[in-house]
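dumping this here so i dont lose it
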């Protein structure tokens, strides 16, 4: 996948098939759009092109909103788009001036004049341009004027739930990673650098890798104890993770840590990714460290049970 941060660097391609959006979740609804892009491009011997924005428009339009969180970091979003088989990604700088461009001018200036789009495919209820006035109806009208085709992909339903990034965020805020993973079409994850913690877990027989995030806009799932997969050095391991404030040892501040099963490597300063499979209990304050150790033993047993069910389901 070729990435462009300046549209002027984009060289004309044969039969561009285009979609536009923030694509925070790159969820199954978005994946349906990308699949259709590839189908149309292949049929017409063209290439797929995704237009997205940086920073996320809400960061510009809602500068005082301190609660803004996103499912994926930009790096992860780009990785998912590449995995989806997209040929070209254009990242347009989003500014207050850019936000004032009308939907018609956006289509004319960027998609028609610059990209020579042959077909534009958007998701259900997609809006764009100044004050989000652009819609599929607007696109359909402009298609007749500027000679391109348009197509709208209907909302994707999973178990009678219309998939959206908003519903995925809500599920994660509640700790329902199983639901979030179904709607995403992949496992919610957090990537970070392993840093030194208080070493309490090691003393209890459950050493943990504590991670430090470099993106404070990353959405962190609800506090609690989770069954997790851990990726390090292109290998995967089972583990149990905790998101929270570790009330038993009276620490302040949010921590993200994972006890990796049957793992004895020194990975301080290494990058790991934690994939969250299921949340099975709330974070709890215990009477003392001995009670916490007993609970962690139970938690490990529960985690292994979850993995048995997980692996059985994966085998079909």
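and the seq i came up w/
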């Amino acid at each position: 996948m070729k990435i462009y941060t300046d549209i002027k660097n984009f060289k004309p391609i044969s039969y561009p098939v285009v979609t536009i959006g923030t694509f925070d979740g790159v969820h199954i609804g978005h994946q349906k759009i990308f699949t259709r892009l590839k189908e149309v491009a292949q049929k017409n011997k063209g290439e797929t092109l995704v237009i997205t924005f940086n920073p996320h428009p809400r960061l510009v339009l809602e500068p005082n909103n301190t609660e803004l969180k996103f499912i994926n970091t930009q790096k992860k979003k780009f990785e998912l788009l590449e995995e989806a088989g997209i040929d070209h990604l254009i990242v347009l700088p989003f500014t207050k001036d850019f936000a004032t461009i009308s939907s018609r001018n956006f289509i004319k200036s960027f998609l028609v004049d610059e990209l020579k789009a042959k077909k534009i495919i958007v998701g259900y209820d997609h809006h764009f341009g100044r004050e989000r006035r652009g819609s599929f109806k607007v696109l359909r009208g402009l298609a007749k004027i500027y000679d391109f085709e348009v197509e709208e992909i209907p909302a994707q339903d999973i178990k009678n739930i219309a998939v959206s990034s908003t519903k995925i965020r809500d599920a994660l805020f509640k700790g329902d990673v199983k639901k979030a993973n179904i709607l995403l079409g992949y496992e919610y994850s957090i990537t970070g650098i392993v840093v030194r913690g208080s070493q309490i877990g090691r003393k209890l027989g459950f050493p943990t890798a504590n991670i430090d995030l470099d993106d404070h806009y990353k959405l962190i799932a609800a506090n609690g104890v989770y069954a997790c997969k851990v990726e390090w050095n292109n290998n995967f391991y089972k583990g149990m993770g905790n998101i929270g404030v570790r009330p038993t040892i009276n620490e302040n501040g949010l921590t993200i840590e994972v006890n990796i099963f049957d793992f004895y490597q020194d990975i301080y300063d290494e990058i790991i990714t934690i994939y969250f499979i299921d949340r099975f209990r709330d974070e709890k304050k215990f009477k003392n460290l001995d009670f916490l150790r007993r609970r962690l033993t139970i938690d490990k047993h529960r985690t292994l049970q979850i993995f048995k069910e997980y692996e059985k389901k994966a085998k079909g």
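The chain has two domains: 2-155, 187-314.
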